[in-house]
Amino acid sequence: MISRQEVQAMYQSGAKHYDFTTILFRLIGLRMKAYRSLAIKKLALQRGNCVIEFCCGTGLNFPFLIEQIGSEGRLIGVDLTPGMLDIARARVNRSGWKNVELIQSDIAAHDFPEGVDGVLATGIFGYIPEYDHVIKAASRSLVPGGHLSILDGKQPVNLPSWLFKIVLKLGGPFGYTPEYFNVRPWESVERYFKETSFETRYGGMIYILSGTAQ
Ligand SMILES: C[S@@+](CC[C@H](N)C(=O)[O-])C[C@H]1O[C@@H](n2cnc3c(N)ncnc32)[C@H](O)[C@@H]1O
How does the average pLDDT of the chain come out, rounded? Predict the structure, then answer.
């Protein structure tokens, strides 16, 4: 797995191109917007809720989250890379959201507040060898009945290999190597959460995984 320093350097230099790359993914049938929307639906958020996004990047999930929690809710976005957070901050300012807090931190070392209603993590676990610890920390941060929702990638089961190669090529500047897709966060979610659900899309390469805090 690539080191923290490598991840941060990669995202710092690629931050300006990140949103455009996700648009390119649409050309090969990856419906990221629909997958994000489904992952956020699994959080079952209510107006006024507090939600944390782990590794929020440029804030592409923010519009969906704010739509659920409203201006009376609270959104905390945490990310390692200053350049990604700068773009997220610009999005927040442009949209006039006053209820978003952005924190630059390593998710594996961060102390999350308690009493959170939802935790979202999209496109991150292949960078984080301590993912079991992070998922356990999410379970402790959530109120009983709060939800964790994960949207991420795994080794595909039913995707033509040429198409997977294109995914790796497009995602290469962001560290989408075959190893990225080898981690198994669902085992940790099973360990620390109840009422888990697991859905796949795109030939089994994309998964949406959720669980309810005990
Ligand atoms: C693929 S992007 C996903 C961004 C966003 N979640 C999305 O769906 O568009 C991965 C993000 O994870 C962040 N990241 C990687 N490792 C991290 C860590 N240990 N702690 C915090 N953020 C991290 C990177 O800076 C980058 O912004």
Answer: 96
